[in-house]
Amino acid sequence: MNKSPAAAADMLMGWMESLADATRLRLLRLLERHELGVVELCDVLQLPQSTVSRHLKLLADRRWVRHRRVGTNHLYRTILDELDAGARKLWLLAREQTESWPAVKQDRLRLERLLASKQDDAQAFFAGAAGQWDRLRDELYGRAFGDAAAIALLPADYVVADLGCGTGPLAARIAPFVARVIGVDNSAAMLKAARKRIGDHAENVDLRKGDLAAVPIDDAACDAAILMLALTYVPEPAAVLREMRRILKIHRRAVIVDLLPHDREDFRREMGQTRNGFDPTELRQLLAGAGFARIDIAPLPPEPAAKGPALFLATATRAAG
User: Fold this and answer.
1) Is residue 29 a part of any domain in this protein?
2) What is the pTM of this model?
3) Number of domains in the chain
4) Taking the mean position of all CA atoms in its chain, how far away is CA 294?
5) Which partner for 310 in 24, 109, 141, 147 could form a disulfide, CB atoms 3.0-4.6 Å apart?
6) Do 217 and 303 share a domain, yes or no?
């Protein structure tokens, strides 16, 4: 039976009202392919449970999602085939238009981490003794020893530049394994804290005050250079990357860890950053333009307790010439 024009108009306005919210659009994208609980959705969206539950109730009332009870948990899912044809067309358009949203890309990374964790839980259940060993090892020895073993693979004769060293956590960690660490930061307060942290390793850690766009290190003086959560603070990233290349020996490696693009403007202002992360394509062009080759950029899996935007790891080598 055909709906009256008035009823059809009311239905259309209801659909549009349902989709006229960024959080609800993000929820629908997540629930289109996966059945998730409220706690899991809060983890991925990084929103409080009250907010997620409120939006889920509206979506359920408007029949965008359905849920089923499993124990004490409610699992939600969007089923495209069950939507009205008009609602389905409207959603497909909304999904296409939101594909490039930074928040959506961040959600996707956190969802991948969540799904991988769930898969790990399932494997651990069937692994028996092997799964018990992982838990026991973490309880007895922690997890930091794995990082220490990886850092120990650095050649002992390396000179490493820690650019934007801050309070020196990385310099202190690397110092026991290499010949020398040169830490550079433009904040006197940060360098004071770094000197206190370095402690017993002061003999092979050289902390210098300087601008990352004019690094106080000689040409080709370093075997490796690291920018850890520093590039989003500089007004001219290209100039910093050129300096990074200048201080490296030919064919030696640069490492960058920083933020992927996000739309959390309040976070950027609070942290004093100059930009909302780096798109991998843009960063690749900047690195190539600065004289780097063998460039590799990959997102890092968000850690469960992390509240900030997702990160990437980039590596590159100084090209000859």
Assistant:
1) yes
2) 0.76
3) 2
4) 22
5) 109
6) yes
Domain CATH code at residue 28: 1.10.10.10
Q: Does 149 share its domain with 63?
A: no
**175 inside domain:** yes
Residue with tokens 């490039």: 100
Per-residue pLDDT reduced to its tens digit, 164-220: 999 999 999 999 999 999 999 999 999 999 999 998 777 899 999 999 999 999 999
Do residues 177 and 301 both lie within one domain? yes
**CA separation for the pair 61, 66 (Å, rounded):** 9
Sheet order of strands, 311-318 included: 205-209, 180-185, 159-163, 222-228, 248-259, 311-318, 292-299
Domain of residue 302, residue span: 143-318
- Tell whether 208 and 72 lie within a shared domain: no
